Amino acid sequence: MEKLKRQRVFDLLKGHVDNLINEQVNVKGWVRTKRGNKNVAFIAINDGSIIHNIQVVVDVAAFADDELLKKVTTGSCISVNGKLVESQGAGQHVEILADSIEVYGTADPELYPLQKKGHSLEFLREIAHLRPRTNTFGAVLRIRHALAFAIHQYFNNKSFYYLHTPIITGSDAEGAGAMFRVTTLDLQNIPHKENGTIDFEQDFFGKETNLTVSGQLEGELGALALSNVYTFGPTFRAENSNTTRHLAEFWMIEPEMAFYDITDNQDLAEDFLQYLVKYVLQICIDDLEFLQKMYDKELIERLKFVTENTFERISYTQAIDILVSSGVKFEFPVKWGVDLQSEHERFLVEKHFKKPVILTDYPRDIKAFYMKQNDDGKTVRAMDVLFPKIGEIIGGSQREEDYDKLVSRIREMEIPEKDVWWYLETRKFGTAPHSGFGLGFERLVLFVTGMGNIRDVIPFPRTPLNAEF
Ligand code: ATP
Ligand code: MN
User: Cβ(237) to ligand 1 under 6 A?
Assistant: First the structure.
């Protein structure tokens, strides 16, 4: 077969290809469907560059190699040379009249799991190695990429530096969740000290280590030198919460800014989220339209809703008042001091304010040690951003920059000072007011795609009892 430059399906369907009309082109990709009769065959090819397929038309009589055409079945991978022509049929601009086809890989129709359309998302989770080939996961993965790219672009435009924080950590002070241990000790033969406890001095790092639950503490170290930084990396929580919003391994974006107070922090969070949603509305509209049609009729409306409304900003205490006086019977009853559940968060966003909400000034007893203490002695300068359908999408705060207040909080919460001495030193040497927040990347992708389960917005989800792929 003559070697021609490969054209992406995206470029052929969307690009300015007028100069290629009536020219020989090559496309390569996976066959989605083949139909037709003994005179003509129509092959729909997808190469993952776009949700749509390009149609290849084969004049069966003129096509000498009958055996070859038989191998072209759903799921097979082929390379096609042919003439690009304006399409006769409705629904597409161009198609290819095949001259020659090479089959790279067959897919036995008896065995190929995606032979038929319309599999359930649950079934597709069991074939995570193949599900990227479906329209749904193609769309989700392209949107996921676009969001990751837009995040880096946003921060780069604002002169934030990308800080790489460690994945293996020696401190478990953050307290954001149960951790996964990292060890090279022989589990069949664990070394013990004389007092019977495990001798971690013999472990790889000479101490106990775990996978990180957050890059924030190290992010703060960066901010107190470079002013504005962000992390974007994997985080791990061994929480046994089998919900549609929790993963054991997820990606988090954590900007951390010196000289930002809680209001600056809220402004950034709002601007950031709106930027990201606008970007996807602009770049990924074909994928969004597909997902809207298939899964969520209000998807694009909901995305626009976020970009067009300023976020409501109220305190936790005001939110409790609203929830209590609403008279709604929640599964988890509300009173001042309780942590809000997603049913409460969604009530505020979807029913009460009908716009995204930023809650601030939470009770200090339900928040982390590093949050700046308010003068009332009861609350801390925390902020959570609440979104429709998701509930909490961002959690953040102004950080306690006062050494004495921070130390007394650490003692109160019985956090071992030897684990956080390095963190405390930033308050001893050149401390500064600063703030930051964490955005769960998959929560964002969940929101933007309208998918219902967080397992369906990451290529290979890690959840309790599930690490096959
Ligand atoms: P939640 O109450 O929903 O469990 P959290 O309070 O534990 O969240 P943070 O510790 O504030 O969350 O983490 C920051 C962000 O990371 C959250 O706002 C959320 O977007 C995301 N996140 C937290 N836990 C998970 C998880 N297990 N899987 C996916 N994303 C998560
Ligand atoms: Mn949690």
Answer: yes
Q: What is the pLDDT of residues 396-406, one digit of tens each?
A: 999 999 999 99
Q: Which CATH number fits domain 131-178+213-456: 2.60.40.10, 3.90.1150.210, 3.30.930.10, 3.50.50.60?
A: 3.30.930.10
| Rounded CA separation 335/340 (Å) | 9
9-105 has CATH 2.40.50.140 classification: yes
Q: Which residues contact 425 (CB under 8 A, 6 or more apart)?
A: none
Task: Give the model confidence (pLDDT) of 80-98 as tens digits.
Answer: 999 999 987 777 789 999 9
Instruction: Report the separation in Å between the CA atom of 440 and the middle of ligand 1, taken as the mean of its atom positions.
Output: 6
Pocket test for ligand 1, best of 180, 443, 454 (most atoms within 8 A of CB): 443
User: What tokens does 156 get?
Assistant: 């780069």
Q: Does residue 273 line the site of ligand 1, with CB under 6 A? A: no
Q: What is the pTM of this model?
A: 0.95
Residue 288 has phi, psi (to 5 degrees) of -65, -40
Residue located nearest, by CA, to atom 25 of ligand 1: 246
